Amino acid sequence: MKRISWILFFLLCFAINANAQKHTVDTCHCDTCMTVKIGRMIMAGFKGTTPSEEIKNAIEKYHVGGVILFDKDVSAGMGERNIRSPQQLRELTDQLRALSAEPLLIAIDQEGGLVNRLKPDYGFPRTVTAAYQGRTGSLDSASFWAAATAATLAECGINVNFVPCVDVNINRDNPIIARYGRSFSSDPDSVYLFAKRWVDEHHKRNIITSLKHFPGHGSSRDDSHNGLVDITGTWRNEELIPYNRFMDDGYNDIVMVGHLINSNIDPAYPASLSAKTIQKLLRERIGFQGVVATDDMNMGAIADHYSLRKALALAINAGVNMIIVGNNARVYEDDLAVRCHDMISSMVSSGEIPVERIDDSYRRLESLMRNFGIEGYKCRQTKPMTA
After folding, report:
1. Superfamily for 27-371?
2. Fewer CB atoms near the end CB (10 Å): N or C, the chain?
3. Cβ 53 vs Cβ 60: under 8 Å
C-alpha cells in the first residue's frame, strides 16, 4: 500500500511539473500576461529630456515595451524633444530603464548625415550619409562610420537603431530617400554589401537593427510622411534583392514596413497594413522570421486616411509585431501610447484581433531579445488562465 502511495505521489508531482512547464507567457492569457504582451508590441515617443508622467505611466502600468527618441519636436515647431547632450541622453535612458519591470527597447533613427538625431551641435561625433559612403566605393568606410555610430549608441544606452536603409536609389529625384542621401547605391547588391557592414558593426555592440522601408521606397515620387505613396508604377523587383540576400544570411532582427501602396501586390492597403505584403511576400516568399515593425503610425500616410483603431487592427491582423507611434507629428497626444494599448486590448476581447496574433508577436519579440541576451518577462501566475 505504501508503495502504491509513493507511486501516486511521484505521478502527481510529475503532472504538476509538466503543467508548470507548459505554462509559459506564450500561452498564458491571464489579464497580467495580456497586458504585458500587448504593451510589448508598442514603441512610443514622448516629450521631455527626462521621462514625462505620460511615458512613466505607459511603461509602469501598461508595460509598453519600447520608446523611440528624437532630438526635434515637430509639434513644437522643431523645438527641443529628448536629446540635448551625451550625458543627458545617458541619464535619460537609465531613467527609462529604471521605470520598467521588463527589459526596455530604447530606439532611435541614427542613419547619419541628414537623418541624424545625435548632432555635433549637442556634442556627438560627426556623421555622413549612406550616399556618401556608397560613393567612396569602400566597404571599410561603411564599417568605420557604422562602428562609430554603434559605439556612440552603446555609450548612451540605446539598444535599437532603425538602420540600415536598404532602399535602392532608383529615382534620383525621390523627395525622402535620394534627397537626403539615405540610399547607399542604385545597385541593389551594393546596397546589401554596405548595409551588411552596418548590421555587423551594430551586432558587435549588441544593438538591434532594422532593414527599411519594405518593400522599397527608393523608386517613389512622394514622401509617406505627407500622405499615402503609390509605388505601383515605379517599383521594381530588384528592390527586394537586399532583403533576399539578408535572409540568405539568416538576418533575424527587424524589418520596417513602409506606408507604400503597390497595387500589384495589394490593391486595397499600404504595405504596413497589408497581409499580402507582410504574410505572403515578406514571410512566405522571402522567408523573414523576425520582428515586423510599422513605420511611424503618426505619419500622414496613415493618420490622414485611417482612424487609429482601424489602422491598429489592420496592421496587427496583417502580421505586424511592433507598432511604432512616435507621437512626433503635427499634434502631440499625451495619452497616445495608453490609448493604443486600450484599443488593442478592446479589440482582442471582442475578437476583432485574434489572441493568436498577440501571442505570435510576443514570441517573436522575446526571441529577438533573447538573441541579444535580453531576458524577457516571467509570469508569476501559478496556473494557466484563459481570457
Report:
1. Glycoside hydrolase, family 3, N-terminal domain (3.20.20.300)
2. N
3. no
